[in-house]
Amino acid sequence: MLRDPVERAAIVSAIITVVLGILEVWAAILFGSLAFIAAGIDALSDTATSVGVFTGRRISKRPADRKHLYGHAQAETLVSILLAAVLIFAGVRVAYMAIEKIHLGLVIKATPELFFLAGLTLVIFGALAKYQIRTGRQANSLSLVADGYHTLTDAVSSAAIIVGLVAVGLGHAWADPLVALVISALILRLGFGIGRDALNILMEASPSAEVLAEINRVCMGVPGVLGCHRRRARRVGSHIFADVHIYVNPKMSVGKAHEVATRVEHDLKTRIADLSSVIVHMEPARRRAHGKKR
182: domain CATH number? Predict the structure, then answer.
């Protein structure tokens, strides 16, 4: 049994999305609905990305080695970039198919079977997305949260399909490809958003200002620290790496100063979530820094 909640959520997602994706594609072929083709492609791409999330999580947990001295945490970020690429490709493909169907003027019928399938997928995808996003945030897994929002677009797609089927039933045949276009726009928007966030992590963007402020508060709460500056932090996958310079009394012994730095490191790792590595530099306090909290 999988103990890692991210890996467990990824496997559950892969199983559910592949089953529902196949059902949607089957319904699309049987009844000629382009909206269901779009939803089916989206769901099956979700299956592929869930497998990617599982693989990326496994790789990211590997310990550091000679070639990867800082570990493999960026594996999840790379999976997120792959997910973004898959979404963008799927969105463009669905948009092309929708425009083609509008041009050809193909017509479908709104049957009870299509309404039932759309309602079923709406409920299941909605519950699955909530589970993935909640689990991903608790485990600070960017790739699982991204996959959860991808699944959420599946639920939105199902809702849009229901609206489109109602319109088709009222004689508006153009509603089916129009819904497919709406779904493609949602997929593209999500793909670009996930790609932007993942690239920010690869470019070592800093975490929120609140994290840097908390680093300052923790440092200044350690006895013997007279000030701190050059607080820096960056995200590496689901982890945070940081370094900080602290001022200590210039008359303090090297051994005592080292004890202060060790306490700072311990407190930072204890109080700041996801902080995996921190380097503490010690400096003798200058006159204007001595006795001041900077």
Answer: 1.20.1510.10
What do you get for the CA distance between the two ends of the chain, in Å?
Answer: 50
Instruction: Supply the Cα-derived Rg of the chain in whole angstroms.
Output: 25
Q: In the structure encoding, which two tokens stand for residue 53, read together?
A: 């999330």
Query: Which residues are paired to 236 by β-bridges?
Result: 239
Q: Residue 53 has what DSSP assignment? A: H
Residue 122 amino acid letter? L
pLDDT in tens, 192-230: 888 888 888 777 777 778 888 888 899 999 999 888 888
User: How many domains, the chain?
Assistant: 2
Residue with tokens 């049987």: 30
Burial label, 270 (beta-carbon count in 10 A; 0-12, 13-18, 19+): exposed
- Both 108 and 186 in one domain: the answer is yes
Query: What's the token pair of residue 164?
Result: 């489109």
CA atoms of 112 and 147, how far apart (whole Å): 30
Distance between CA atoms of residues 290 and 294, nearest Å: 10
Cβ distance 211 to 233 under 8 Å?
yes
pLDDT, tens only, 84-130: 887 888 788 878 877 876 766 555 677 888 889 989 999 999 999 99
Q: How many CA atoms does the CB half-sphere of 204 hold within 13 Å?
A: 5
Q: Nearest-CA neighbor of 96 among 152, 158, 37, 49?
A: 37
pLDDT of res. 293: 45
A 10 A CB-CB count for 93 gives 16
Angle at 92 between CA 124 and CA 167, to 5 degrees: 55
Distance CA 270, CA 220 (A): 15
Does residue 289 sit within a domain?
no
Contact residues for 107 (Cβ-Cβ < 8 A; gap 6+): 173
Query: Which residues lie below 8 Å from residue 89, measured CB to CB, with a gap of 6+?
Result: none
Identify the domain containing residue 230 by its residue range: 209-284
